Amino acid sequence: MKANRLINEKSPYLLQHAHNPVDWYPWGEEAFARAGREDKPIFLSIGYSTCHWCHVMERESFEDAEVAALLNDTFINIKVDREERPDIDAVYMKACQFMTQSGGWPLTVMMTQDLSPFFAATYIPRETRYGRVGLLDMIPQVRTLWRTKRAEVLVAADEITAALRRPESGRAGDVGEDLLHRTYRSFMMSFDATFGGFGEAPKFPSPHNLFFLLRYWKRAGEEEALRMTEQTLQNMRRGGIYDQIGFGFHRYSTDARWIVPHFEKMLYDQALTALAYLELYQATGKKEYEKTAREIFSYVLRDMTDAQGGFYSAEDADSEGQEGKFYLWTEKELRSLLSPEEADLYLSIYRHTDDGELPGMREIPAGHFIPHRATVYGEGDRDFPMAEEEGLEAIRKKLFAAREKRVHPHKDDKILTDWNGLMIAALARGAQVLDDAAYSAAALRAMHFITEKMTRADGGLWHRYREGQAAVDAHIDDYAFMVFALLELYEATLDAGHLLRALELQSRLAAFFRDGQNGGFFFTSSEAERLPVRPKELYDGAIPSGNSVSFLNALRLSRITGDADLDRQAHEIYRAFCAPAGAMPKAFTYFLCGLDFAVGPVAEVVIAGGEGLPDTQAMLAALRRHYAPNTVVIFHPDGEAETEIATIAPWIQGHSAPEGRARAFVCTNFTCALPTSDPEEMIRLIDPEPAG
Predict the structure, then answer these.
(1) In this model, does residue 582 exceed pLDDT 50?
(2) Is 5-165's fold the same as 603-686's?
(3) Please, which residues bridge with residue 93 across strands?
């Protein structure tokens, strides 16, 4: 098949479609100009390389000569990778949600030559079936409408675009601690007390919901908040949503029991779930949560890391044309690889659900199963003695080695700044909590990659890197998530250079993304390509919104530096969120983590002492073990009058350790205590009434 114009692109998703008979264009002026010359509407298809239903729609329709002929005759056809161009996706996903009250990928949009949408849907079958109109019937109808009722189509498109331009944010009212209580009660009502998680199937990890619940437990001492978090993370780890052989989390569970996943693996899910397990480990001290975080990191560093240090985006759900084939097993295969005793032990633990028992088992062939443990306590699961655990680990390694010989799912090897920011933050946090320098080393390598390969000459960021090319203007998530990463790297390494870079990036956000009228930040820079609508994301979806992360970043930076301008930035974001968060708080849980910080109390801790000396390290170790999320930590090296950190945070001048012993200066609720050299006393000053 002759290649189309996508053959010259870098995106793995666009390259997957480079030999379709559809006359695809990448997003750009060449396509728009041709639409104008030929007086055709535009057919926009948005997806990503590891999207299962995107593959289905391609096989059914975009590889089909009849559908392709209709598309080419009726439209100018454009393909967009949502991960490469989230700004375009944000505009047209909002249009789809406006028109259909739902959304997802593949996203299909029909629009005028000025890029105004008049139709939107997700997956569309080739042929009409079960009440869903197929492309073979739909395209001729659209062609007729375009030719005979153009004026009506244009009016509808204008009305949709006008509706999209209306601001979602409002400045009315304030929200405070009461909203935290109300959100917690809402989570209690939707909690699945049997299997963990919230609501019915499908179930997504949504770690930012758990970040909120842990902070609420810390604030209010509500043991139920901790229990909901533990049960959810325990059952996720036990279920098939977790890759029991090679580690890492799949995208979501199609059933309520966390057993049958949608098999794609996303980098951002690994980062956010690792952070959740690390926080729960801090809160409880239970080794199972440490173990899970380490396993997630093992998967990312083994399978998702570029030779230069950056992190890849995703692994597909499909291999050899079948969803999940790489991850499925049969009893016969297991018994051919293991001794009878090993096979009996493994099957007694990891095949807890009979084949076909779950409605979510949709396309899984008979006789195959997904390794998982029981996701309800008392259903045959148990704690294992050390010798048996070691035996299970030996079995896992055998199965992993055998699985490595299979045809692997496609790996999307593009490197995205925003998702790398989340992974760097998780690794830097892991280095602190688990006292493991290997994780800080990996985080620093990735940050070096971003600095060397994805930073513009003016200090700004690029969004995407692949095959030696950095491209696409960075958006709010790139800046916000990198600031988050730099804050975590500072706490892991105590290198004030990370704080300086965080302040630079935060300053760029304020200069190029600020919404001066409604508060908060736009998704795109004021210098970015003009779209029909300048998108602005508020709610926390699969990942926290850039605005939510920027809210907490600005609060943390303001407490570190004492800079009132940063506090004003945070307050502007807060004002933009008040109305929507007050109306639908469960859609804003990362923002509520920031609100929890803003309401306080917050502890500012200055550790003064000799870097690397045992008493300094004892202070830092005590801080890193303890779950105190609303704490900022500043290290002031002993014996240095002029330091980078003193320039960044001039208020710490005078915080020193004159006797040569490390001292902690703790201020909470705008009140400072006398300095202490006792790590336990420092923790008591930070947390006089620990939760639980």
Answers:
(1) yes
(2) yes
(3) none
